[in-house]
Amino acid sequence: MEPVVGDAGTGARGVNESSAVEGVSTDGMTPVSAADVIRAHALTKIFDAAGSRTVALEDADLAVRAGEFVSLIGPSGCGKTTLLRLVADLEAPTSGELEVTGRSAADARLARAYGYVFQSPVLYDWRTVQGNVMLPLEIMGFDRAERRRRAFDLLAMVGLGDFANRYPWQLSGGMQQRVSIARALAFDPKLLLMDEPFGALDEITREALNLELLRIWAATRKTILFVTHSISEAVFLSTRIVVMTARPGKIERVIDVDLPQPRGAETREYPRFFELEREVRESLRGTH
Ligand SMILES: Nc1ncnc2c1ncn2[C@@H]1O[C@H](COP(=O)(O)OP(=O)(O)O)[C@@H](O)[C@H]1O
Ligand SMILES: [Mg+2]
Fold it and tell me: How many angstroms does the Cα of residue 246 sit away from the middle of ligand 1?
């Protein structure tokens, strides 16, 4: 069975299975390669459909270390969702190499090594909030007490402890998205894949959820790969920003976000915040 929610022993910064193989450390430190949660090399995805050929992603190189918060930003159609879907093994690459939590993307999916949060929360209206979070655990045959305990803990973590017995349609859009984040964490995955999860929300709600997500990230030490259209959201959340270009979808540049942690509402007022926003904006110029 998977480690329980909140178990720090095998958390993102813990020693993982692959370090036994790659553990060549002589100074007592975990080798960096063992801590890579995503490793992509020359990753390419071409869609061939009815005579039209789209290079959705070309030659992408990316390594995401345990505990990082990496955002993908770029114009519509530049392959952000495609990259996420490759990592999730929802699409197969045309060529290139990909490792997720030290194994193939297919094995990572089977091991439930990631949780996936979509732009729309995709909740079942006839199930309570807690019922929605318990669903993946139910499918995997977890016993009732364990399901209820995990769902309750996760809902408390996303600030919805008092809403467990409500129905999704009784909640605001922001609250529904919190439910889908709780559900994505049901198996305590190392990696969270998030595809524009706050894109449909108003700016005030989005900023509140940005803060909330950083709190969850710090508390759970997850590794997050996050897609966004918003420059300020990318700068606020990320430890690194991957700027992508369209036609063909390529990684244009990777920007380190050296803003101090933990971040708060005041972070958005720092001069460095504005500088980084400008840097991302300038990188995006000419990517259309
Ligand atoms: N299943 C598919 N079949 C054909 N073309 C696709 C498919 N999925 C995505 N594409 C194309 O690949 C490109 C990248 O798409 P996508 O990854 O969704 O971009 P983004 O998420 O950055 O907006 C687009 O041109 C899109 O039309
Ligand atoms: Mg997309």
Answer: 10
Closest CA to 135 of 179, 183, 191, 189: 183
Q: If you measure from the C-alpha of residue 19 to the centroid of ligand 1, how many angstroms do you get, rounded to a whole number? A: 35
Is the model's pLDDT at 8 over the cut of 50?
Answer: no
Same domain, 278 and 137: no
Task: Give the CATH number, domain containing residue 73.
Answer: 3.40.50.300
**Ligand 1: centre distance to CA 243 (Å):** 17
CB-side exposure of 221: number of CA atoms within 13 Å? 12
Please give the mean pLDDT across all residues of the chain.
89
Tell me if 86 sits within 8 A of 76, measured CB to CB: no
Q: Which H or E run contains 137?
A: helix 129-139
* Both tokens assigned to 156: 């408390």
Q: Give the pLDDT confidence score for residue 288 in this predicted structure.
A: 63
pTM score of the predicted model? 0.88
- Of 188, 214, 234, the residue that ends a domain is 188
Helical (H) or strand (E) element with 148: helix 144-157
Please give the residue range of the domain that contains residue 78: 37-113+190-288
Which among 188, 203, 220 is the end of a domain? 188
Residues 184 and 194 reside in one and the same domain: no
Same structural domain for residues 108 and 216? yes
Q: Candidates 47, 91, 194, 251: which one to mutate for ligand 1, based on the most atoms within 8 Å of Cβ?
A: 47
Percent of residues in the chain assigned helix, strand, coil, to nearest 5? 40, 25, 40
Using an 8 Å Cβ cutoff, are 108 and 170 in contact? no
Q: Are residues 80 and 146 in the same domain?
A: no
